[in-house]
Amino acid sequence: MEIKYCDNCRSKIGSGELSAGTAKRSEEGKVYCHKCALLYEHTSSALLQVPAPASINDQTTQVVSVVQEPGTAVTKFYFCETCGKRITDKQILEGLGRDKKLKGVYCKDCAVGVMTMEMDAVNIEQLGKEKPKTPSGQDATKPTQRKGSGAVRLHDIAQRPHPPGKATTGAKNDRFPMLLAIGAAFVIGVIVTVVVMKQPSVPHERASQTVRAELARKLSPPPETPLSASPVKSNISEQSPIAPEPSVPEKKTVLLNETPKSSLPIEKAPSTSPVEATPAGPQATEMKPQEPAAPLPVIAPVDKGRDQFAAVLKDLAPLMRQSHFNDAEKLLNEKLRDPAFEAAAESLKKEKEDLAEIRALRHRAIDALRTKSGSTVTLTMRGAKITGTVKDDSNHTDLALALRDGPEMTIRADQLDVQDVDAYAPVETGIAKAKDLGMRGLLFLAAEEMAKAEEYFTKARDAGLGNGVMPYLERIKALKSEAREAAAFEVWKKAEGLFASKNWKAAKQAYEALERDYAGSAALANNAMTLKERLEAIGWALGPPREISLDLGGGVKIELVLIPAGEFEMGSNDGRPDEKPVHKVKIAHSFYIGKYVVTQAQFEKVIGKNPSDFKGENLPVEKVSYSDAEEFCKKADNLTGKSFRLPTEAEWEFACRAGTKTKYNTGDNDAALEQAGWHKGNSEDKTHPVGQKKPNALGLYDMHGNVWQWCQDWYADDYYGKSPATDPEGPAQGASRLLRGGSWYENPGSCRTANRGSINPAYRGTNIGFRVAVVPAVTP
Question: φ, ψ for residue 483 (rounded to 5)?
Fold first, then answer.
């Protein structure tokens, strides 16, 4: 019998009901049970699913009436006024209803109402005001029970008839059922109240009037606001519990020509107005139309002034470095008069004061040199050394020097090299020592000789200037970092140029110098992946490493051995017909091949399962088809970024022989096989952990026995007679794929280097595994 389900209430409908007309189909092709069909005919399908109230505080009871069947009461659907859930007649009979005081209908989860509700056409407004009537017109407060429903109102329990066989004589016996009912109602009321108190977010209909009022207040929606109202704008006041942004302490300006007990300043932070605040909480929210939300409080003047000062320093630095002090002073005066640089005024003034200190130190050096009248001195001028005799010239403030091999020249204070200023300016002692050290630090900072500047500022700090020199040390640190980043970028550009020109050795040295000398620099961090690729490509170009280990994740690695390009004689004249003729094959490109066959741990890490019969992490994976091996290679590509594949038959035999021409890569007799592989004679009918036998000359293990190894070629017994001489890849198509190496199940003859096996690529056997090959991912 075909079973269908009502498209409205999902009740089961038998095919017999459809044929009998009890259940019906709508014009849209939907199927409705008998009850829902009546509802559809009366209200149309659009009214079958009545939407829930828009608000949980909507006290309007939603009712959907159904056409009354002959001899039955009219059925009504109600919807919970809290969550909007529909309440059916069955649910009403099971204990849901309305509260007489609030006149609301709630589902079981939201409230406990009157335990039953008569399914009649009594007006909603009259319920709770007058005694409900049964369909027969009797007083509903008398003991009545709907046929088949078993539903009795709670307040009628006291008037239930006594069980048969129990006499009810006397007033005491008449009161006892009533008292019992009242007690039961009281207990139920207490339990319901406790449940409601545990769920304060639900308006419970048995709670006290006070509780209901409080819940109504909490659940009531906020007053409507104009559509043009903007987001809330909050102001933070002094009483706010939210901590305001910390104000920047004002730094006291102390000049170098003042007493050394004070500290050297770098800049004075402009004063800022107090940040206004308003209390947090409901009172702090005020809706103001057409007004944007207030931004978070920030101390903008400090950041703005710092940025403006940094911009000025970019123009000032070359002037100071070249000792163009007049131009530097002119620039500072221009910026001080410019209103756009008002935020940086204090820093600019301090820079102007520092310029005056540098000039004063230079004049002290000139004055000291002028006292050496008649003495021979050596000075540095534009990087060149000059030697002359100091002349006594009291009419000028500059230095007059008679050169040994030339005319007399005059040297101004701003023309002295910083090293000469440092050497000839008298060193202050005592209380003025710290100030003198700070002035020398300024001298070298202006010349951008950071190491010497840092040395003097550090000495000045230790001599008594303390934190006053910290801004200068911070500036030096920033300048050194900037210079380091610039140098690192230049090294990167140089290395990239060498790489582009394929000067591999020089490029490698440049890249390695970048890693060694500029660790942590942005140039290195931003190009980390490119650098890795470049070094890898150079490695391939200069000669790849003999062995590599690739991480498959979770600590599982796969080891591979480099097989250099070369030639060999493939096949055997002493073997089976498909091994003939012996022919020369050239492997044109180097490649990597697995040092071991793929283990169960490696396969499970990449594929996520282990199909092997002989379990063990270090045992060869077996019971894998050709497509299983191909899937492993594709996923290993994604994990490592390398190009994995199965080796060709020619690559496998070339790697296995490792330059030999014998039956096995360890010799010609079966005893030689004992050293190299597991076969039927020594395997004990099982696989063994990889790497336990002797490797071949290239360092490859288990090339003979243990498990057969899939190759990527299709098999053809006559392929050797027509294969290409360079990098043969097998026939274009076939019925079976090639296997090489033999297995634990095979006799020694099947484990020979030249032996060719083949099988359906879908076959999975306990003696079949595979070994991977990897080719360079980047070829420069």
Answer: -65, -40
